[in-house]
Structure formats: C-alpha cells, structure tokens
## 1
Amino acid sequence: MEKEELLLSAIAGDINAFQALFAGFQHQLKSYLYRLVTDRDDVDDLTQDTFVRAFTKIGTFNRRSSLKTWVFRIATNLAYDHLRKLKRWQADAQDRAADLAISSEEIREVFWMTHDTSPAGAYEMKEHIDYCFTCISKTLPIEKQVALILKDIYDFQVKEICLILGKTEGVIKHLLNDARNTMTNIFEHRCALINKNGICHQCSHINEIFNPKQNQQEELMKLELVKASKRYNREQLFELRTLLVKAIDPLNAAGTDFHEEIMNCLKTAIGEKSNFFDRKRDKAE
C-alpha cells in the first residue's frame, strides 16, 4: 500500500495503517524524547502514550503538516507535561555527578561492572560528548531545548517547529538564537577540548580510566571538534558539536548502558532521584 493510501486509511481509523506510518519515524521519536527526558523507561511510556493519543485524535489531523510533525507535537506536549514537574539542570550537574561517583565505591563498581559485562557498556569520548550535549541542553528552558534539538539535531524546519510548539516563526528564531548562544557560552567556558582554559576534562578523564591502553592524544585527534578548536570560531565549533551529536543514537550506541549509569548517578547527585540504586531494585522486582 502506498504512503498516501496508508494515511487515508489511518485517518479513517485503520490502526494497522497508522502503526505502519508511526513505525517509519518511531525510532527518531524515541531518540528525540530521550534527549528531552533522559530516561529509557520514561521514553517507552511517552512513546506509547504518544501513539495512543495520536491514533485517538487522528480524525483531527488536517494535513497542514506531515503526520510526523503532527505526532512530534503530541509527543512534545506530553514530554513538556512530564518535564515541567522537574527543575531544570544547572551547568555543574556533571561535576556534581563526578563528585558523587568519586565518593561512592558502590557506584564505581556499577560503572566497572557495566563496562566489563554489558554489550552496550563501552566507553568512547565522542559518545560522552553527546551525553554532555544532552546534559547542557537540559539547563535551557524547555521550549528553547525543544527548538534547539528539533532544528539542530533532527533537522526540522522552522515552520515545522512553529507547528510543534505553537509559536510564530519570529518566536522560534528567537528561541533558537538564545539557545545556541547559551549553549555556546557554556561550552566555551567549560569544555577543555575547545578551550585550553576550559574547566571540564570529564570525557578524556573517564577515557583514561576505562581505556587505559588507548593512546589518548590519538583518540582526541580523531575528533574534528578537537582538530578545529584553534582555527574555528565558537559558532563553528558549536556546529561541529551538533554534527557529532547528530551522528550518535543515544539509545543504541556502543556505550548506551554505561552512559545510562552515569546519567543515573547525575540525577542522584542533583536530587532528581533519591537513590542511585532505586532504579536497579525496581527493575529487579
């Protein structure tokens, strides 16, 4: 069945047709939701809720946009409802997570176990740069985070983001400009990869721990971000960072499980989770 026929059938209430269309962008939707909520269980719940909500309301789809854009609007509204109950992160959230990990032998043991035994427990610096981008983006107000990720990571057009957020083109451009400036400023002052005065060496420091036999400088120089750090301006470096992030699937990368544990540590450090081991106990039960 052609896509147009599937769409007409879906609008008429055919759940199988809707499922076929939804499957075409479901993976990207889950990746997007993960960058917003940073919890795989929440992503699964939100994806399911999005599917149900979208199919229930499919009769109202007026085709002013693609079905994908329309579904992303529903998912974004659900994620917004979830996120507004939580405080936005501070730029030092990763530092606080590092302090917690250093002070807890149990947490470090979980990191080692995940790294040594999980098929998705590898550590690569480029994946940690992606993790860092996600963390820093969560310091932004939600609408700025959404606009930035949709445009710079998932290549949505401004007019599509207008429909997703229910804002005018001028407002979306303003949100994007502010979000990029804020992110660029934070990276410029924090990231030692692009500024020798940067205070954060976390990605290379963790690499030294978990990949001790690896040539550190050789690995660093594989990153275009590092090679360009002395000749590019800050806006160009931010664009390079987004290109690196776009190439990584945060839900299915080589170190997905490893970074989930780091994320869990961070959420514990900032008080978003009461105990690092709560999630593990819940899953075991």
## 2
Amino acid sequence: MTRTATPKQPRRTQEQRSSEMRVRLLDATIECLVEYGYAGTTTPRVAELAGVTRGAQVHHFGSKTDLVVAAVSHLAQRRTEAAMKEISRMRAGDDPLGTALEGLWELHQGPLFIAAIELWVAARTDPALAVEVEKVEPYVNNAVLLAVAQLVPNEMHRKNVRDFAYTAMDTLRGILVTNFVSPDPDRGHRRWLRASAQLRLAAAAVMPDLDADGL
C-alpha cells in the first residue's frame, strides 16, 4: 500500500513570526487591562501571559505606554473594520436608524471599551500617556465619518447626522461607565434602549426629512 506523503507546511518567515509575536503581546495587553486595570498591567505580566520572553517584549515595545497604546489601537482598528462591514445591513433594513443605534451598542461591548476607559482615566494624570492615547481617537472618528458618508448620500444632512452620531456615542459611553459600579449588562442595555427612544425623537425633530434622502 502506497502512502501519500503529507505536504510540508512552508516555514514561517522571520517577519511572520515577528508579526505573530506582536499580536500575542497586544492581545495579552488588552486582557491585562480588562483583568487587572492600567495600574496592574505590567510588562512582565504581559510577557508571561503572551508566552514570550521579557527580551522579546522589550524588542517590540520599549515601554508600557508604547505597549498599551498600540494594543488599544490594534483592537480599535479590528473592531472598526468589523463595524464597517455592517453598513450594508443598516442600509438594507426596514429601520436603519434603529439598526445603527443597536450596532453602536454592540461596538462598545467586549474588551475595547473597558481597555480604553482604563487608559483615559490613567491619562488624566499622565501627560505622556495622554499624548499617545489621543492618537487612538481618530480611529473612532474616521469610522463615524466614513459610515455617515456611506449612509447619507445627501451632503446637506451629513453634519446633522455626524452630530447625532457623536451625541449617541457620548450618551452610550456615559451609560456604560455608570454600569461599571454594579455590572449588569441587561440593565445597561435597557437604559440604552430608553436613551435610544429619546435619541430617535431628537433625530426626527432636527432631521425630519432624512429618511427620504438616506439612513
């Protein structure tokens, strides 16, 4: 009986191994921020969780600030890309505004928002960290601008829609922050649904003819 030889997998290049190690470090950093907070996120702890040596961690990220900001930027980019894929679903549905508001809720679930909050609070008293954290916000802002441009063909309405999107985001973040004290996802979601009803009324008041032109 002749055995068919199993084809050998191509060896990973140094660049591929380096990229995979960076991703492990970034994912481990987010996990640490969520589990231990900013103060408890140390470079030795991240290296141990990622399964890499301290020397390898220092080679990729020279400081804790470099590491945590890169990690949040990495996760923000991934979540933004996932959110952008949902735009076609928003446009095709019977209630695009409702779908967009619920999509905003989903986008803020998971580790990204928790990790971001840890950095925002720490950055209040750490000017160097604040400078770096500020660089993450364009990911969110650019995603909002791109989504609005795709959802609202009529340029006359875009500023109102952008303002509405930022107001909705500020409202949601406030709800999520207050929910940290006594975590209850169901209660937080109920509060968001109640706020969404008020946001829809506000949208109808300032953009009464929007449905005819987009969103």
## 3
Amino acid sequence: MKHPILIHPDPRLKKTCVPVADLSDKLRILADDMLETMYAAPGIGLAAPQIGIMQRLIVLDCEKEEGSSGKPLVMFNPEILASSEETNVYEEGCLSIPEQFAEVTRPKVVDVRWIDRDGNEQSETFDGLWATCVQHEIDHLDGKLFIDYLKPLKRQMITRKMQKLKRERARG
C-alpha cells in the first residue's frame, strides 16, 4: 500500500526517531509499503518519518541500470560506524522536498550496520551514490534534511517554495 509522503516544512520531519525495539510482521509490511511508495514516487530512498512514522526504518535502492530488477534494501535501526575522510559531492533531492535539488558534500565511503527484515544484524561498506543515499536517509531518522547542509539563504528559498507548494495542494 502506498503512503502519502510528508512535504517540508512538517514538524515530524525535524524529529529524532525511536529505535525499532522488536521486529513485527506489521513492521515488515510497513517496509514493503515504503518500498512501493519509494518506487512509485519515483525515488531511490525513503525514511519512515517521511510517511509520518517516527521509527528508525529506511529503504533504499540505488540500482539504476536498465533492465535491472533492482537491489532493494530494508534497514531497521541503521547506524554509520565509520566514514571516509574523502568526500563526494552529489546533487541531492528529496521526496519530501519535491523538484528541489542542491549539491551536498558527504563522506564518499561509509560503513553501516543495521537489522534486516529477518531480524539479522548486517553490515556493509557503501561507496558513491549508495553511500550518499544511506547517509541522506539516516539523516531523516535524526530530523535532518539535505537542505540543512545548505547556506541559510538557499535553505530559506527552498522552504518558501515548499510552503507555497503545500498551499497550492491544499487548495487543489
């Protein structure tokens, strides 16, 4: 089932999420729903707070090759264990900040640990776009948006555009 995606500014997007204490079938279904919502948007990552659920759950799939069946990842309680000194700059966007993009500098490589949908602990080293995406989604769990990395003027400009978009959608 697809969920509506919250649009910035929404106070829930600025809150820190609580860890997932116990993996239930309800949470596994939620993860599947989040993947469906992300693919439909379309996007390459989605965090639970973006659909109003304040738990530490993210989904991502940065496999963009033509004909690829994708590589969906579901992460409960993801945490970055280590980050490289070397950085990458990607033009980031966000499903909660539609049609707005900006260059953000982040560590090029990150080591991440999480619980998979079967309750097993996993860890992996991510590089390039995958590293950027996983950091972007984990930021959501800590109440941080990609525009928080921008200079105040650019951030305010994007926030005003989103306020206008929300007013237009409300009139809809």
## 4
Amino acid sequence: IDLWSSDHSPYFFADKIARSQTPDFTTTLSGIPGIETRLPLLFSEGLLSGRLTLERYLDLTSRNAAAIYGLAHAKGRIAVGLDADLALWDPTVTWTLGHRALHSRVDFTPYEGRSVTGKPTTVLVRGVPVVADGELQVQPGFGQFVERSAADPARSGKPVEEMMPWLDA
C-alpha cells in the first residue's frame, strides 16, 4: 500500500441503493462516506496499536500522496519552503464514530458505533489554523489552488496487470 486514501461518496444511504429493487454491488453507487474517518481509523488501529511506525503512518497519509500527485514541491512533509499544512492530534481521546459526530452531509457511516482512540484537534493550512479545538475557523474560499508538477513514472512501480498473473489464464 502506497497511500491511505478514500473513495469518498457522500450520498444518503437511500440514494446509494435507490437504483434497484434488489440492491447489490453492481447497482449501488460506489464508495462510502470515509474522508473524515480514514485517518482516525488508521491512527487508532495502525499507529497507536503498533502495527505502523510513525514514519510509515506519515508516508501513508502525507508524503506518498504528495509525491504521487505531483505536490511534493509544496506539501507532504515539514521542510523549509513547503506549505505548513499540519494536523495536531490528541492521542488520548477515545471517541465513537457515528454519522452525527461527523461533518459530511450524509445519514450513515459504515463505522457507526466503532470506538477509536486519537482525534485531530487542530489543523493548520499554510500555517493558519483552519480548525482549532475541533471547530472550523475559516470561511469558504480560504483554500488556494496548488499547481502540480508532472508525476514521476519511476514512483508508479509495476502496472497492476503485471502483478496479477491469474489474468493471463
């Protein structure tokens, strides 16, 4: 795994399954609401459980994404000249995931009732607190477009097809 990402799909549950009388994976809308749960789950079950080192956690959540998406010139790590985008976590807070505790405009989470430890409390974007003590501090439009550089093909590794020999059968 090179990065920990989300196929975030912010649909209401009824809208996800509305295409069919007998919903299954071929008729429902893909993805789950996961953009706000993916990092707390990895923090709790990966980093705090000892399954991941801090170095590996940072690779999965920041450095690799910046490199893969051509943003390493501005983001992904703490260094002079890069944007000061940081998330500060309270590693002692235990909380329960549930759609009422989250901020996506949806009526479910597949992680409803799951307890996790660790929660981001402050988020800095370009050094400015955009979330402080769990509360949004900026107005819509605060973000800035960051131009990407070309992706490095050497980082791509082998195509998926070359790693799945059973497709040749």
